[in-house]
Amino acid sequence: MTGRIAFQGELGAYSHEACRQARPDMEAVPYHTFEDAIEACRSGEVDLAMLPVENSTYGRVADIHALLPGSGLRIIDEAFVRVHISLLALPGTKLDDVTRAMSHTVLLGQCRDFLKSHAIAPVTGADTAGSAKAVAEQAEPSLAALASELAGEIYGLDVLASRIEDQSNNTTRFLVMAREADHSRRAEKMMTTFTFRVRNIPAALYKAMGGFATNGVNMTKLESYMVGGSFTATEFYADIEGHPEDPNVMLALDELRYFTSQRDILGVYPADPRRN
């Protein structure tokens, strides 16, 4: 596929890396916010949008689940990206020269052991690739950045140390979004993502979930969030294994309808091989 895919952040961000891995033949286009990336796709300025939804270490990405239902976009794919963190510095800098490392607060927290062992003080930056860009612009040998090797390549920085994250399985899950849904069965293992609101009856959530259990449908994610700032209006976001046309999934979704006031399938897409 040719075309353009939007992501949030600076060039060299992990979302940029996800675009290169999942859609290597597309031009990756950076946008300042998630909302900007979504709008670019919705308006037709780009063809797809790459959005991070959760990290194996830090859980869900704030705001994304609330943005998806009203985005007007549909999920057509998922991508699991292994987060490898590198220490980047000006060309010619040695590791012993570095006294401070700048990055997003999440990445700083993922490299505590490395920073402590090398007596490097953490410095909070706006984001990972933006920190690499700032290190290149400030030209201070004592200041390094924690970011991807891709960011080092883009901003002309040397990799002083690689794969320095404390947890070796640190992975971020991304969703590939498009204006049109694609419910075709494109792989042996498919995923379905949907949102729903339960009716105001006793044990509504328990009853709504019962159909998935009795029909042997594996639900891999279930999260809730408030709607419109109300403490009484709650929307649920769910991922399940299977296609809506699978007999057991069809039965479970039919049963879900009895106990919900609103349902919306956000996407049907192949499971990433790295999911397990």
Automatic annotation (TrEMBL):
UniProt GO MF annotations: prephenate dehydratase activity
Entry annotated with the keyword S-adenosyl-L-methionine: no
One GO-annotated biological process of the protein: L-phenylalanine biosynthetic process
Enzyme class (EC, first level): lyase
CDD domains referenced in this protein's UniProt entry, alphabetically: ACT_CM-PDT, PBP2_Ct-PDT_like
Pfam families assigned to the protein according to its UniProt record, in alphabetical order: PDT (PF00800)
Pathway in which the depicted protein is active: Amino-acid biosynthesis; L-phenylalanine biosynthesis; phenylpyruvate from prephenate: step 1/1
Catalysed reactions listed for this entry: prephenate + H(+) = 3-phenylpyruvate + CO2 + H2O
NCBIfam families (UniProt xref): PRK11899.1 (NF008866)
Ranges where the ACT domain occurs: 193-270
Keywords: Amino-acid biosynthesis, Aromatic amino acid biosynthesis, Lyase, Phenylalanine biosynthesis
UniProt protein name: prephenate dehydratase
Limits of the Prephenate dehydratase domain: 4-179
Native source organism of the sequence: Pseudorhodobacter turbinis
InterPro entries found in the cross-reference section: ACT-like_dom_sf, ACT_dom, Preph_deHydtase, Preph_deHydtase_CS
EC number: 4.2.1.51
Domain of life where this protein originates: Bacteria
UniProt GO cellular component terms: cytoplasm
